[in-house]
Amino acid sequence: MAKHRITDTSKSPLVRALVSTFVGATVIATALGSHAVTASADSAIGVATATGARHPDAAVAAHKDGAESENKVNVTAEQVLALAKSQIGTSENVYGGGTKYQQWYADSQRAAETIARDGGNRTAYLNAAWCAMFVSWVGDQTGARRQIGWDAYTVTHAKWFAANNRFGTVPKPGAVVFFSWGGSKALNDIQHVGFVLKDNQDGTISTVEGNTGNGKVEERVRPKSQVVGYGYPDYAA
């Protein structure tokens, strides 16, 4: 990080005060991965040495602040479900594509990672099954991507929750629900995904799902017998 210096050449106390105020308001951005961490210039005094080097203690503090900010949860289940429900009625075209969810995923960094993992190309996602892309899009658009995850393949998405100890069998509002139409409880048999709206307490759950029915976003009622399990995003309270 380059060192920014502001020199006060005035003898005027008023000018010196104004300069001091400006220094205190200066923001220094330090890139930690893809996440920017900010600190005031006043807090950076003593961080940069005369040669521009960062003091070790300050580097540790900046990294800690970045990690805490990166993992901070600000999105609630209610916010996620509100966006998901607002999409009800969105439909694919006659070719099975044409949705903003497919276009978004095809253009995303995750698509490149998925192609490296599974093969194929970005264009293939434009007409691919999009239930998982819908869930991923909602997470991204609400700022809850780190909590909800993102993938175009339902099995991989479920395994991500399981690997993070956030997979279980209790339906909760905002949970990501994974289905197997034959009633299997094996992750590798997952065929579909959506969001839980509520447990109906009668052996069914209400959901909002993409790529269901006639290729639309719809609210559905599903029997729990078809549920493989639930992924639990770490929502804000």
UniProtKB/TrEMBL annotation:
The lineage of its organism: Bacteria, Bacillati, Actinomycetota, Actinomycetes, Streptosporangiales. Pfam families: CHAP. This is Peptidase C51 domain-containing protein. Residues 106-232 form the Peptidase C51 domain. It comes from the Bacteria.
